[in-house]
Task: structure prediction
Amino acid sequence: MEITPLGDSALVVRVRNQFEDAPEQTSNEVLRALRQIEDARIPGVIELAPAYTTVAVFFDPLRVMDDAARVDHVIELLTQKIHEALSRGGRRKQRDKGTRLIEIPVCYEAEFALDLEQVSRQRQIDPNEVVDLHRAAHYRVSCIGFTPGFPFLSGLHKRLATPRRSIPRKEIPAGSVAIGGVQTGIYPMKSPGGWNIIGRTPLRLFNPQKDPPALLRPGDRVRFRAITREEFDRAAN
Amino acid sequence: LKIDITRAGFLTSVQDLGRFGFREFGVSVGGALDSHALRVANLLVGNAESAAGLEITLGGLRLRFVDDRIVAWCGGEFDARLGSTSLAAGHAALVRAGQELMFNQPKVGCRCWLGISGEIDVPIVLGSRSTDLRTNFGGFDGRALRDGDEIALGKNSKHAQSLVDLLREQRISPWSPPHDWSSPAQREPILRVMRGSDWNRFNDVTIQRFMNEVFMVSPDSDRMGVRLEGIELKQNHDIDLISEAVAPGTIQVPPGGKPIVLLGDCQTIGGYPKIAHVIGVDLPIAAQLRVGDRIRFCEVSLAEAHHLLAERDRDLAEFRVGIELHVR
Result:
């Protein structure tokens, strides 16, 4: 695995070069690498951040070495320790305990589905079928980012892949479920954004008063369940 | 145990050294954009280095004190006044109950950090007292300060109390840290950078120009990043990159070719090419950039970046000892 610096206080471990050719396998490998590096408890490492094909390792360069005079060996030493962690085979066969299945209720009714017509027209699929295809699929969180708690979900039905809007919206309501290219995602809070909105969930995806603060984490499996407007209101209160 | 915000100014927020451990969930590190400046200000007032202080942007701030406190600030070239007395960066000062501390517009730079003895007492959210202004949580009510706010303070530490006694006569400490620590702002700074993972996506001519030409800070810069105007940095081939981690200091180049230097409130992941990274010790300079400033880049090695960090750490350790001696 290639390990490259991200500035002077982070390294990026590239687990695979591609994602779309094998999303499931790539996610598994990234999560495995994440756990292996976590378990190694390397001195000086502050936190890890997984993305589609990579694990970023953030560290304090002055805490990696016991002896600050040898600061020019920091990268060498860290890289070696990460490689050691990754080659530890012991946990490879272990079932990934991190994989949870989370069901997310979504109201796809017109009031919330601001771009459903647009997606339907572009993809030439009846709006009801768009909804059916969207809720029938099995998704996986490949990454969290953009805003706190925003899950990038892989597994969208190919027929639903829709480019982002050419002019992003200035304000998207919290809970909006949207399609951006080959991915689908959920806006945890009111924010600007360019994805096509097809529904809304009453669930709160990010709550800074909780630890962990996000409903979802990388690797989670996700299913959507269609709910009515009444159910939405009841759940939201 | 509080201070009154008579005037909140352009943008003032509560910040500490940042929020770590939650990037996995998309939470920015945030915190003081110049953590070194906040550390030094805290040391000067007898606080823990990690204590929460105020980040002041472009001035306009007026604070009224209701009890005796030690204050110190570091950052851009602000005109700070304690009543009618001017208070230079990097000096500890005794503020008496009823006195007002004022920050006018800076001549150079745009931000400074104010340490107040007893530290600012806001709840810890996700391990930090910093305000996440993008997502509106942490700090004081998850937002920038407003006129009329009352901010809770903790008790003066023993160290701060001895400073209060020590400065009763002279009011402002004669001691201060090295000048470039307390005032990193420059009009035409050179930012030292190391290569980013996408450096090779740009041809030699583009790289040459990136290293030699002047870039100007554009108006739409904020705590997320400094946007730059100048020559267009064109890639050899436009390709879609898979999003991965970015960090404060990362210089990314969106399709338009105008580079952005990311700062503390930046997103945790990004999909634009990373041409270079501002090294850790120069982030304080990046944190001072304001509209119209002209900057240039200069390449250093990763080993050099680490040496500079180690050197600064040693200097800071010496300064800590020096401060102890004054109070003893």
In short: DSSP finds six helices and 13 strands in chain A. Chain A has a mean pLDDT of 93. The two ends of chain A are 48 Å apart (CA to CA). The CA atoms of residues 32 and 95 of chain A lie 10 Å apart.
